[in-house]
Design goal:
Number of domains: 2
Strand content: under 5%
Number of strands: 0
Oligomer: single chain
CATH superfamily of the largest domain: RNA polymerase sigma factor, region 2, helix turn helix motif
Number of helices: 8
Helix content: over 70%
Shape: globular
Radius of gyration: 18 Å
CATH class of the largest domain: Mainly Alpha
Order of helices and strands: HHHHHHHH
């Protein structure tokens, strides 16, 4: 489980403490980036969106109240919505295929990529809310209460959504084999 940001650090960041802001960015950027990476196909788009989340954090943290992480995930979700709206309007060309990371065993890289592609295909069978719960709970490891705050739902609703999501994912992946 990843370390959470202590409330005194959040308060210091809200007051403009550059060190606290830097620490928050350093700790939360990887989480936001992973979340966005699971939502968009292009790694460059995930990087751009994650960067924009933190630009918005810097612009709005003084007025932000409540759970900072939940707020950042809502900002990320809103940016995703905007991203897909813009993408639907314009035509994009796909970039070159991803290169295998230097030094990685090609067989292991291929297996990892195939597993990831299979999971992505399975995730397509889920609703957007179900995808959100799977990413936040299973992939990023947030607790039910944290996901409930991020999604603005009750803990019971998150548990039910997670159960339905995992059932649908199991069915989708089982149908593939």
């Amino acid at each position: 489980m990843e370390e959470r940001i202590p409330p005194p650090m959040v308060e210091a960041a809200r007051k403009g403490d550059a060190g606290a802001l830097a620490t928050i960015c350093e700790k939360l950027y990887p989480r936001i980036h992973r979340y966005l990476s699971h939502k968009v196909d292009n790694p460059k788009d995930a990087e751009d969106l994650a960067g924009e989340v933190f630009v918005r954090m810097l612009e709005g943290i003084r007025d932000q109240t409540g759970n900072l992480e939940a707020w950042l995930f809502r900002v990320a979700g809103n940016l995703l919505t905007d991203h897909y709206r813009k993408r639907a309007v314009r035509t994009e060309t796909d970039g070159l295929p991803e290169e295998i990371a230097g030094g990685e065993d090609p067989a292991a890289a291929t297996e990892r990529k195939l597993s990831g592609e299979r999971l992505k295909r399975g995730m397509k069978a889920l609703t957007e809310e179900q995808k959100e719960v799977v990413i936040l709970r299973i992939i990023l490891g947030y607790e039910v209460g944290e996901v409930a705050a991020m999604m603005e739902r009750s803990a019971g609703a998150v548990r039910a959504l997670q159960f339905r999501a995992l059932s649908a994912l199991r069915d989708a992946l089982g149908a593939e084999t």
